[in-house]
Specification:
Blueprint: E1 6-10, H1 22-36, E2 40-46, E3 59-60, E4 67-71, E5 74-86, E6 91-98, H2 100-103, E7 110-111, E8 116-117, H3 121-139, E9 145-149, H4 156-161, E10 174-179, E11 187-188, E12 209-210, E13 213-215, H5 216-223, E14 226-229, H6 232-240, H7 249-254, E15 259-261, H8 289-301, E16 312-319, H9 325-335, E17 341-348, H10 350-362, E18 367-371, H11 375-384, E19 387-390, H12 400-406, E20 410-414, H13 417-422, E21 435-437, H14 442-458, H15 460-472, H16 477-493
Parallel strand pairs: 1-2, 1-9, 2-6, 9-10, 10-14, 14-15, 16-17, 16-19, 17-18, 19-20, 20-21
Antiparallel strand pairs: 3-5, 4-5, 5-6, 7-8, 11-13, 12-13
This protein binds adenosine-5'-diphosphate.
Adenosine-5'-diphosphate binds at residues 21-23, 25, 316-318, 345-347, 373-375, 378, 397-400.
């Protein structure tokens, strides 16, 4: 093994403490995999109020109390609490930066009821970014790498290259920044900039500014030593397409030699039908008949009738524009003419929720919807469905299609980003794992569903092969974790 590195992972979401999407899964499982490769890795995240002190045995760290953090013209204080996550052999230390006025709230970024972003998200994450560096100094634990994730951590590389550049503690520290989604940028009005304490001259297009705003993601893309994103295809797409690059494709193309696509893995200790505690009956590729019992349990949960030959199409998703559910609504009438059942677990956009609620009333005996976040139900949907729908407009990596394949649930996906990198269409010479469509168009989605239903109902042997091919795929983290470590190695060599 190469020399062990000290790596600090900074993220605003980490499973099982706080999650709105795949970011949380990655920021829990990737550190575990890196630790398993023999490196020392620790995590820092905000301490949101809902992270239960009791459940997670959070405790104070006496010497990390009342750390002064300059934000705007005031001095705020961070109190650091500690807990850990575990993998098979090790514990991974997690530090929580606590400040009641910033993080003592019910949501991560939004008021959960009104679904409106908190007005002071700029200050909250200025506090977090600066807090990470100040905490490290007090802790006296010197990382070789600070691995930042998404806009909420985007100022860290800029602080290191400006305010902290002559600080001997950070002299040799390198930064890696991972883009989990280009569309969320943390772009604030120019007036926010002075709250950061960054030098005035950095507020230019060759610095933290993008289109007149103080943009946290852009800041990271400009200042971090290396940029990664979560699939190779998405890495190409965000450089090549102004739309997918969300206005920053020029800068990304400029930094292309420092940009790497590394596919996310999945956590097989959590997502494996052979050991899944949440599902009705465990199974693997040799006991596929047990999957039918999960299908029974699933349809019963949604008050639908069980029919072996009627495929259940599952979907679990944030209901936001990115995920392509407008296409589903567009073709729903046509799709429901087929002999199928649809179950959807989602939360997000109120308008989309309303439209699906109306559709559910129309197709009630063959369609079930649950709005909200429900981890346990998500597992049952993966286990009990025959097919899984992900018609995303864009998808940096996507996790559910990989979970689906592991569960023998055949994905129907749009060929974009990580969906394109992980799913092979049935037409690919016996190696297929699912059904893909290319154009973002409801008719194309409908055709893909029709192909899937036809194969399911008329070619059972081909269907079984699709299921088995998917179940045999290896999407474990080990492979990707090695790629990250190689990247660290390259970076530290220079
Ligand atoms: P994104 O991060 O864009 O939301 P990913 O596919 O990368 O998409 O990750 C989504 C993660 O969130 C998966 O683990 C998925 O199971 C989970 N998830 C999404 N919506 C829900 C929900 N309503 N209930 C439970 N889990 C959900």
């Amino acid at each position: 093994m190469s020399k062990p590195y000290n790596i600090l992972f900074a993220s605003s979401e980490v499973e099982p403490f706080a999650k709105t999407g795949g970011l949380a899964d990655v920021c829990s499982t990737l550190p575990k995999a890196i630790k398993e490769l023999g490196h020392e890795i620790r995590i820092m995240m905000p301490r949101y109020r809902f992270i239960s002190e009791r459940k997670f045995r959070l405790h104070d760290i006496i010497r990390l109390k009342e750390i002064p953090i300059p934000v705007n013209t005031a001095e705020k204080t961070a109190n650091v609490k500690s807990s850990f996550i575990t993998n098979l052999k090790d514990k991974i230390q997690v530090y929580f930066l606590d400040n009641e006025s910033y993080f003592g709230r019910e949501g991560l970024y939004q008021n959960p009821k009104a679904k409106e972003d908190y007005k002071d998200n700029d200050e909250r994450f200025i506090f977090f970014c600066r807090g990470v560096l100040e905490t490290l100094k007090r802790l006296g634990w010197q990382p070789d790498i600070i691995h930042c994730n998404d806009w909420q951590t985007g100022l860290i590389p800029a602080y290191l290259k400006t305010l902290y550049k002559d600080d001997p503690f950070f002299k040799d520290v390198k930064t890696v920044f991972t883009i989990h989604n280009m569309a969320y940028q943390g772009a604030f009005p120019a007036e926010s900039f002075h709250k950061s304490g960054l030098p005035q001259e950095t507020f230019t297009p060759d610095g933290v500014e993008a289109y007149g705003k103080f943009n946290f993601l852009k800041t990271a893309l400009y200042y971090s030593d290396v940029i990664t994103t979560v699939s190779e295809k998405y890495a190409e797409e965000i450089c090549a397409s102004e739309e997918l690059g969300s206005g920053l494709s020029g800068l990304l193309a400029h930094r292309k030699k420092d940009l790497y696509g590394i596919l996310n893995g999945i956590d097989y200790t959590v997502w494996d039908p052979a050991s899944d505690q949440h599902i009705y009956r465990k199974y693997d590729s040799k006991s596929l008949e047990a999957k039918a019992d999960n299908k029974r349990a699933l349809v019963a949960k949604f008050n639908l009738a069980y029919n072996e030959s009627t495929p259940v199409i599952g979907a679990i998703s944030r209901l936001v524009d990115q995920k392509g559910f407008e296409l589903v609504l567009d073709m729903l009438d046509e799709m429901m003419k087929l002999d199928v059942q649809l179950v959807l677990l989602g939360s997000g956009d109120k308008n989309l929720e309303k439209k699906f609620e109306t559709a559910q009333k129309k197709f009630g005996d063959r369609m079930g919807v649950v709005f909200g976040l429900d981890e346990e139900l998500a597992h049952l949907i993966e286990a009990g469905s025959d097919m899984f729908l992900m018609p995303s407009k864009y998808e940096p990596c996507g996790l559910n299609q990989m979970y689906s394949m592991r569960y023998g649930t055949v994905p129907i996906v749009r060929a974009t980003g990580g969906l394109d990198d992980t799913v092979e269409d049935i037409s690919t010479n016996g190696k297929g794992t699912g059904f893909k469509f290319v154009k973002y168009d409801s008719k194309e989605l409908l055709k893909a569903v029709q192909r899937a239903v036809k194969t399911f109902q008329q070619q059972p042997e081909d269907w079984k092969k699709l299921m088995r091919n998917g179940m045999m795929k290896d999407f474990s983290w080990e492979h990707s974790a090695k790629k990250y470590v190689n990247l660290y190695k390259e970076l530290l060599r220079h």
